[in-house]
Structures are given as C-alpha cells and as structure tokens.
Predict the 3D structure of the following.
Amino acid sequence: MPVFLNTKDADFESAFQALLGAKREDSPDVDDTVAAIIKDVRDRGDAAVIELTSKFDRQDLTADTLRVSEDEIEAECAKVPEDARRALETAAERIRAYHVRQVPEDHSWTDPEGATLGWRWSPVSAAGLYVPGGLASYPSSVLMNAVPAKVAGVGRLVVTVPTPDGVMNPLVMLAARIAGVDEVYRIGGAQAIAALAYGTETIAPVDKITGPGNAFVAAAKRRVFGKVGIDMIAGPSEILVIADGDNDPDFIALDLMSQAEHDESAQSILITDDADFGRAVAEAVDKRLETLERRAIAGASWRDFGAIITVRDLDEAARLSDRIAPEHLELCVADAEGLSDKITHAGAIFLGQYTPEAIGDYVGGPNHVLPTARSARFSSGLSVLDFMKRTTLSRMTPGALKAIGPAAETLAQAESLEAHGLSVRARLDRLNES
Amino acid sequence: MPVFLNTKDADFESAFQALLGAKREDSPDVDDTVAAIIKDVRDRGDAAVIELTSKFDRQDLTADTLRVSEDEIEAECAKVPEDARRALETAAERIRAYHVRQVPEDHSWTDPEGATLGWRWSPVSAAGLYVPGGLASYPSSVLMNAVPAKVAGVGRLVVTVPTPDGVMNPLVMLAARIAGVDEVYRIGGAQAIAALAYGTETIAPVDKITGPGNAFVAAAKRRVFGKVGIDMIAGPSEILVIADGDNDPDFIALDLMSQAEHDESAQSILITDDADFGRAVAEAVDKRLETLERRAIAGASWRDFGAIITVRDLDEAARLSDRIAPEHLELCVADAEGLSDKITHAGAIFLGQYTPEAIGDYVGGPNHVLPTARSARFSSGLSVLDFMKRTTLSRMTPGALKAIGPAAETLAQAESLEAHGLSVRARLDRLNES
C-alpha cells in the first residue's frame, strides 16, 4: 500500500516532509575501490582495462579486441527485427528534430563606448557515453545521449558498454549506429570511465562523459570530474501525476507503474483534488500489479515510496509539486497548460491525458535524461548545451579603453592588484601621448 | 626565468607536454575535516556555525548577529571612496548589460504529427554566493557572481563572507548592495557551504552555490553537489597571450604579470612568431618584477610556470592554444578576429592590443569566472544560464499519439518495460474504440 495523505489532515505537513525526505537509495561506499581502479588504468592503460574486464565481465580481450569492430556491429544490427529498427529510427528522428532547435546562437554587438562584445559556442571535441550492461542497457538512452552530442557537433563520439560473457545487446549497437557513434568499446565499470577520462594506448581520452551507471560508475564520474566534464549523477526515477477526477483510473495507474517498474527505489506519486478518484487509482494499480511482468519491482516501489495525496484544489497541487520538484510531471487536468504555468520546478512536463510519460521516454522528442531527487530546482535535462561550451569575446577600441579603462584601474588598485591596473594605465598613457 | 620553447626544436613536443602537465596546485586533503564540519552543521545548525566561526574567525556571534544588518552594511558602504563607488557602479552596469543578452528564450512549436513540444526556462529560487575573506576578497567577484544571478531572476540571493576578527571589506558590502544581494552572513569556510546547502535555524537553504574559496570551501562544494547545484571548482588563474612582433613588450609583460600576481600557482604564457620579441618581453617582465608590489608572488609564478614559446606562424600558435585551452586568451596580432576564428577552446578571448585582460576582470562586461586547468575544452564561464534551469514540455493530441505511440510501445517491449508499453497501448485502444 502506498501512503495516503490529505492536505486537510492535521499531520499533513510532517507526513509530506517525511515523504520528501525519504532516503530511497543507499549507495554503497565504493570510493576506495574506484580510486584504485582509476589509478591502475592511469598507470597501466590497456593492460589494466583488459585485466579488470576479464575479472568483472568474464571476458578475455586484447588491445585489438577492446573495440567492437564494424563487422561485429553490422552483425549485431542485422539481428534487430524490422519493427524495432523502424521504431528506433522514428525515435532518433524525433529526438534530433527537437534537439536541433536547442543549438544556441552566437552573438556580437558594439556598445555605446565602442567596445565590441559577444560570445560564441563550440562543441566539445570528443565525448564518451557510458552505456550499462545487463538489464539497464537501454537503446533509448543511447539515442538520448548520442543524438544531442552529434547535433552539438561533437567530432568524436565514443560508447563504452560492458558485454559480460561476451553477450552484446543488438538494439544498443543499432542505436549507436543510427545516432552516428564513432567508436564502441566493450568495457564497463570504473575502468571504462577511467579509460575515457585519461585514455589508454588504444582508447583516446574524451573531454566529456555522460550516461547512467551503477554505484562504481557514478563514483568514478565524480572522481574524474574536473579532468573531464560529466553530466549529473542520476538517482532513481520519479513521476508525479496531477490528475482530476475526469480521468481513466487505469491510465493513471499504468503511468505510475511505468516509473515503479524501473527500480524498487523509484517513486510514483499521484496528487488529485478528488479523493474518490485517488482510491480508484489505487485499486487500478493493485489490479495491474496482479499481472505485470515486473510486479515484484513495481510493487516494492509502490509499497515503499508510492503516495496518493488529496488536495483542496489544483493551486495547492501546484505548490506541492514545486516542493517535490519532480523529474517527470504529468498534468491530466482540464486546463493542463494553465496549471503548468503555475509550476516552476520540474524536469519534464507532460500535458493532458494523451501524453503518457512513456512517450517522453522514447519518441516524444525531448530528452529523457532528467534531473532526479529534487535537483530540478537547479538543473535541467540533458541537452545540446551539455556538449557545447561558450567563449566570450571582447575588443576595446582606443576610445572604449579611454572610457572604461580608468574604472578598471580604480578597481585594480582597490583590490591591490597593481599589475592589473598598470596593464590598463600603460595603454591609456600611450593613447594620451598620441 | 620562465621556460623558453621553440616549435622548431627537436624536443619541443616533450617540453610542451611537460608544460601542459605541470601540476600547479597541491590541494591538501581536507575531506575528512570537511565531512565532519558538514555533519556538525546539519546536526546542530546555528550552534555549530557559531562555534566554528569563533574557532576559525575569532569572532563571537549569536543567532541574531550571524546576519550582517542593514545598518552595518550601510555603515560599511559609507566608507567607500567616491571614485571606487563610481567604478563599481560602472562595472555593475556593464556586467548587467552584457548578461541581460544571455537570458534565454522559451520555445514552443507544433510538429507535423500534431504534437506540441517545447521548453521553458526558470530561475533557481535561491542562490548562495561564497565570498572569501582576507586577501582574495574581491568586490569584482561579488559583481561577477551576483549580477548574473539577479539578471536570471533569482528571488533570494545570499552572500556568505567570513570577517575574521570582525573586519569587514567595505567594497565587498557595497558590491553586494549594488548587485541587489538580499542577505549577507558573516561566516565562511566549509561551515558556510553547509549552512547554505542544508540551512540552519537562521539561514534558509539555497538551491545553488557559486563563488571561489580555499581548499575547505572547494571540498565542501564537492560534497554538497547534488543536494544543491554548484559552479565549477576553480583552479589557479592562467593567461595565454599570442602576440606578433608589432606590440609594445611592456604592455605584454604587464598582461603576463597581471595573472602572475594573483597567485604563485598562476600561469602566464606568451606565444609569438618573433623570437626577438619574446626575448624583449622577458626583459620587460624582469624590469617590472623589480618594482611590482606583489613581485614575490608574480616572480615565483613566472619562474615556476611561465613560458615563452616561439612558433613558425600564427596557425601553429592557434593549434598550440587549443591544446592549452586557456582560461584567458589575448590575441595581440594584426588580424585578431581572423586568428580567433581558428581557436576552439578558450574561456575568454581579448582581441587587439587595447584589450588587456584586466579590462575583462572588471568592466568589460563578460564574466571573469572562467574555466581553468584546460577545462575550457568542456565548460564555459559563469553566465545567466548557471542560475536558470529548463523544463521540457510536450502535449500529444489523439492524432499524434496514434502516429508515434506504436513506436514507443515497440521500444518499451524491446526494453522489457511492460507498463511503459501498456500506458501507451491503453490509450491507443481507447482511441481506436471511439
């Protein structure tokens, strides 16, 4: 049973705070292990990666077989059924069409003092995408990371994916190919992150690493942050559905379960202004949990972290939503756009009853890599901007330097940075001489 | 003496790699201390902050005096000389005018399938700006952090600044006031970062923390990353000047020294296509080092990390520059814009001989918080975007869901996420019924 809350209840605030504060994930402390692995890869390169892959993935590689060959990729892609291939292509096209609109513009202007100012954007030269092996090896995530990188103009895009016992996921290989990935290596874990960050004899280093992974991968990403760029460290997935009574309880139940089935630590919350509807959804969930393939996982998530909150009105729902700052937010109400305008903190918003969150996981177009654990308060989903950086530009004319140089000199003196001031003063003196 | 390199020399590549790889900073390992401080502040709130401030800053505070009162700020501001006040106002206006242009636009469109897609930006609700005490307490940095936050629309902007022995920096207080800072607390170190991230009885928590600090502050920011957003961890400052022989050696010497005087770990590099000019700059540096107030610091930086590199031509200079990926890049050549177009990785570019880097530190307009230690390969200077986040939006019509829903269902099945597929299928079945 999920927790049932009602904002009219006297103890609502403490119960809601308990829900917000629930610790859903116990990350094992693997930092020492990861530090040792990174050092080993830095010291010994390929040899370390090969040994660790033999140990963890039971696969004996050589420097020549670390990389998945074009022929192998071709062979894997050929195994994908035609309908799945077409679906991946549809997804890639739609993700590309959305992300192309994110490509930022350069700007340049001349200000009243005559200074020319501006900035320009450029892609990172090389990016690495970590793809987990096993159950969580999702071709859709390959597209969601690789397509924005390629849209950004990343020249060299590398995928690492562990293939324990030599088993590859044909859909992952096809997604990599469709997205234009340049190199694929059959390695995983902290050793893959270390190889991407520092390079080995066979694997050239990259500048930015994105993609989800287990505790070892997350710890390794934290450690190499600074040497390379990384994306956010993702926590378990979450959905908040705000629905009025005019919805099919089974639709909403399925939306809640589509997060819950990811992970026992996932969280699904319904906020409704109709208590009867809330009970109907709870019943619909129970019914679905009788037959869902992943009912053990979804049931545990729903039991431990699920919640149904009854509110007085939708304005109250919006305020609670901003406190939750959900990764995914479905608005299944008559005026979804109007309600959306009242909400500030959310990774992605899905409007109306025909926009189940699962559409956004695959083919909607927006990215499905989104801020979890209330981090939508300060961060955004993955985008083209994550694979680009901005260089600012300025040019002073003699006139501009005369106009604003003295202020710089004054501030340099106030900060006791004499050479800063002199570098301006020497030029002003020259200009005043002539 | 700095190191002199010439790309024509046989050992150039190894010498250049040594320069790139030079370890300029030994961060002490303060992680355990910082972890304990953060835990203490989380457990005991104000009481812990007050004790730690007494211990480290020799200042006895109460919950009532943690915050600097409006009267105190007023009194400090009144101490600032008129020319410095005007210079700060000029700087703030120019920084604001530049950053206003960075405010991103929202987008929304309807695609051929009838889906409405888009995104919108919103500011973080509350941001904290760490300002160091003592020597590195720069009012210009207050402006560079606070102005973009206010331009972004941050509702609550908090400054923490340690005031050891009760000594405040009037210019810092005035910069905070000019930039529109809402609250100022006289605390510093890891305890300030912990208070900003987790809150205490007196200090409400923020969502994002920016600003420079010592090793304790940097370690604390790394630790609270995820609970709140942080900016990049800044390393020692750097400048690369690319200059042809048609420059005044003393101007270039002063520009090199204006980084070197920051810190013994700072790095100043000149690349020139004129070996004689390089030697003339070295002589001009030596002359300036005889009299500069901070000659001990600047001299050590120049001796240990300075370099003058002679190249065959400016194309070679551009290629070396991209390998250095400098924080600051001055282009003092006849066609600075043309050379700039050949460069991809740099935090900020200053064009022409009348644009000394120091202009950018204070009044140019672009931000002076820039990526160090080669991180311009993958990251950007501080901007309005650092105080905003993006929410993606999507709405499917029945027609759009019919068009793309089946592809989502196929991919959900391929990823063994049954509820994902069913959440789409249930709606498609309903639509097909009607």
In short: Residues 19 and 200 of chain A are 45 Å apart (CA to CA). Chain A has three domains: 3-25+235-364, 31-77+124-230, 396-433. Chain A touches chain B through 125 residues (CB under 8 Å). The two ends of chain A are 83 Å apart (CA to CA).
